[in-house]
């Protein structure tokens, strides 16, 4: 049993309780949280201006692309996509053990205890077997060519089965349907059926760019040229609203949604899905900024994530939420900061079905601590100060073990 004492404890519980001079006792799970608790054999005071809060969850990344630094083209979504297709193999080959390790290490330093990995090859599985962080491993299905459907499905099935062998309390399996423009409806149907029978969470990129909107609505624009160049297949295969409907009765997160319209947001709400917002990725691919106010008006939960190093310069989740704080200039920083902390803790835990994200009795002891550079007199501003001043954490506990 360990007891941590900190100047500020941000519980992220339903009442959003902040404890000044608080204490938390835990083993693998959180046992008690409050003030002046019973004595423990191991007690640590974390020092002046110390903060304890739930460890963070990065709900959407692509580790396979972690060797990218300067290869991919930023500034235009379609050009980026062309550059992904051109560089994909080379980037995959150059990301082996050390590369995965570095990527995970960066997340870990920023206080991440769990991440949602989108894997299109299964290359990362061998390494993730020994990941120090919790993993939700989304096997990606992608491909529109009818003649390749069987082959793609067999490859996908084999990856799903390999990953299922690793399932344990730190490794969960999920399925990713890449997007409505890139997956053949037959493949989509089959993959979603597997998710339903095995009760696996789903994730899908959705309405990321204006080009995607135009292609799926009208079969026109830059995507038409893209498909003609790469696949000789120039018809959109599904209406966006039907795409969302296919995820009914599943646990799904839709990534990006920058160009989702009112009907689609309504549908996302109806099927109880959440949205993953990747502001830096959206900025670098120059697709625009998700309207968070609108998402909130539909009472849809949103999660913030980094996306992969394929469309970001860093996997540091504190940097990502700071970017979000600075980008959403129409929202009040004090209230946005609270929502952003929720987006990487409670909302993410709920969407990925993890037993963490808040400091409450019975939750997994996934906890971080760090120090602020000074006192915070007005506790309403604590979330904002945390986001402004934190890059790396001092301690990270996963299931109660310091990692
Ligand atoms: O989220 C970003 C941008 N949108 C779509 N896909 C990806 C992102 N980062 C990596 N990807 C992957 C995706 O999973 O790139 C490939 C897929 O395997 C692109 S599709 C030709
Ligand atoms: Fe992505």
For the record, the CATH architecture of the largest domain stands as Alpha-Beta Barrel
> Uncertain runs with pLDDT below 50, 5 residues or more?
none
Helicity level: 25-40%
Tell me the number of strands.
Answer: 16
Radius of gyration from the alpha-carbon trace, in angstroms? 21 Å
Short description:
With 403 residues, the chain is of the alpha/beta class. The chain is built from 15 helices and 16 strands.
Structure description:
- The protein is an alpha/beta fold and 403 residues long.
- It folds into two domains: 2-54 and 357-402, Roll (Urease, subunit C, domain 1); 56-351, TIM Barrel (Alpha-Beta Barrel).
- The chain has 15 helices and 16 strands.
- The protein has helices spanning 77-93, 97-109, 125-128, 149-164, 185-198, 210-218, 222-230, 240-245, 262-270, 279-284, 292-297, 317-327, 333-343, 346-352, 382-389; strands spanning 2-10, 18-26, 30-34, 42-45, 50-54, 56-61, 112-119, 134-141, 171-177, 202-206, 252-256, 274-277, 302-304, 367-371, 395-398, 401-402.
- Strands 1, 2, 3, 4, 5, 14, 15 and 16 form an eight-stranded mixed β-sheet that branches. Strands 6-7-8-9-10-11-12-13 form an eight-stranded parallel β-sheet, with helices on both faces.
- It is globular.
- The model has no long low-confidence stretch (mean pLDDT 97).
- Bound molecules: ligand MCF and fe (iii) ion (FE).
- Ligand MCF binds at residues 62, 65, 81, 84-85, 118, 120, 140, 142, 178, 182, 205, 208, 281, 307-308, 310-311.
